[in-house]
Design brief:
By secondary structure, the protein is of the alpha/beta class. It has a single domain (about 20-110, about 160-340), classed as Alpha-Beta Barrel (TIM Barrel). Helix content is about 35%, strand content about 15%. It has 15 helices and 11 strands. The strands form 3 sheets. Strands 1, 2, 3, 6 and 11 form a 5-stranded mixed sheet that branches. Strand 1 (about 60-65), helix 4 and strand 2 (about 90-100) form a beta-alpha-beta unit. Helix 2 (about 20-40) crosses helix 3 (about 45-55), helix 4 (about 80-85) runs parallel beside helix 7 and helix 9 (about 200-210) crosses helix 11. It binds SN-glycerol-3-phosphate (G3P) and calcium ion. SN-glycerol-3-phosphate binds near residues 66, 252, 303, 304 and 334.
């Protein structure tokens, strides 16, 4: 890794509370940057985004395109990422897996059969595993058993719709080539411990690619802000050891990690992360968890708002997201619908090409 720029998130990531003067300075910087962003005249900067996570009332929350604009295009394809950019996402998420030859690719599952035609192209390349629910055995096609050249033969779009036939599984580098300079990136280390057991360090690979793209420098992150997320605290701690405070880290919290939402758990998270990404039901059932995290200086980016699975009391995804920001106090959200992100005086930059007039 090359020399790291002084990082506004360092104090927060190390669990120290910023001084009052520093906090005021951060709010002013963040507000200025976000005004520029809201006017569409400047990209979000990493320092501004980190300041947003630190302030108790951030100027505006961030719009994170979950697996791209995955309500409208097949998840983790360049089509879904492109659409997310067109819809004005602040960040585009990439879930990461590793191929047999050690290349980072963007795919949610550790297996290929749900989102590609691997069963047709490589019918004999499965392994059989126990099916937890039925007690029977089932066939899976593991990403780690295929080279990048083999994975590139797969169709990753047809399962979603005929219009997307021919979409491929993108490498992380291809995702960066598309998104860099146009929005932030939000990679997630998926199953890092499984890959560790196969002899790979997903964290080292990720940091290598980020550095090769200049994102280990303040200048690089000025144009392309970066958050790195994981459900694995061990993976985030490894990243912290390898990269210091270069990148703000986000601890994902699902049902299995629920213990991290206690005061003690959240305090432990502040030692290595700048924020948390809790499953939405966990903070809907107990909104005080967001406030507790914010009091400790952690940003809060819950997942995932999707129109098909809204809680009954919300009429639409926009209203739900507005509740997540204005009532719960979250500082960002993962959504399959970056176009439905609430946009008003304080939230959301406009979709590309929509000018500076208000957008719904
Ligand atoms: O990373 C936030 C959210 O994406 C976590 O859930 O399963 O969609 O990766 P998942
Ligand atoms: Ca994810």
């Amino acid at each position: 890794m090359s020399a790291r720029a002084p990082d506004a998130g360092a104090g927060m990531a190390a669990g120290r509370r910023p001084s009052a003067a520093r906090r005021i300075r951060q709010v002013i910087i963040a507000a200025g940057q976000c005004l520029l962003v809201a006017c569409g005249s400047a990209p979000a900067t990493p320092d501004a985004m980190i300041a947003v996570m630190q302030t108790e009332r951030p100027p505006r929350p961030i719009n994170i395109a979950h697996r791209g604009a995955s309500a409208y295009a097949p998840e983790h394809t360049l089509a879904a990422y492109r659409l997310a950019l067109e819809m004005g996402a602040d960040y585009v998420e990439q879930d990461l897996q590793l191929t047999r030859d050690g290349v980072l690719v963007c795919l949610h599952d550790t297996t290929l059969e749900r989102t590609t035609n691997v069963e047709q192209v490589f019918p004999d390349r499965f392994v059989e595993v126990e099916n937890e629910s039925a007690g029977a055995r089932r066939k899976i096609w593991r990403v780690a058993d295929f080279t990048l050249a083999e994975i590139k033969q797969l169709d990753a779009g047809s399962w979603f719709g005929a219009a997307f036939t021919g979409e491929r599984v993108p490498t992380f580098q291809e995702a960066l080539d598309l998104v860099k300079g146009r929005a932030g990136i939000y990679p997630e280390t998926k199953a890092p411990d499984e890959y560790e057991a196969l002899g790979f360090s997903m964290e080292e690979q990720l940091l290598r690619v980020l550095a090769a793209n200049g994102l280990d420098t303040a200048d690089g992150r000025m144009r392309t802000p970066v958050f790195i997320q994981s459900f694995s605290a061990a993976s985030l701690r490894r990243l912290r050891t390898l990269a210091g405070a270069t990148y703000p880290l986000v601890q994902l919290i699902g049902a299995a990690e629920k213990g991290l939402l206690t005061d003690e758990g959240l305090r432990a998270v502040t030692k290595y992360a700048a924020g948390i990404g809790p499953a939405l039901p966990l903070v809907i059932e107990d909104p005080s968890r967001v406030a507790a995290a914010r009091r400790l200086g952690l940003g809060v980016h819950p997942y995932t708002v999707r129109a098909a699975t809204l809680p009954a009391r919300f009429p639409d995804a926009t209203t739900y997201m507005r509740h997540v920001f204005e009532e719960l106090g979250a500082t960002g959200v993962f959504t399959d619908h970056p176009d439905l992100f609430p946009r008003d005086a304080t939230t959301g930059r406009r979709p590309h090409g929509s000018g500076s007039s208000s957008a719904g």
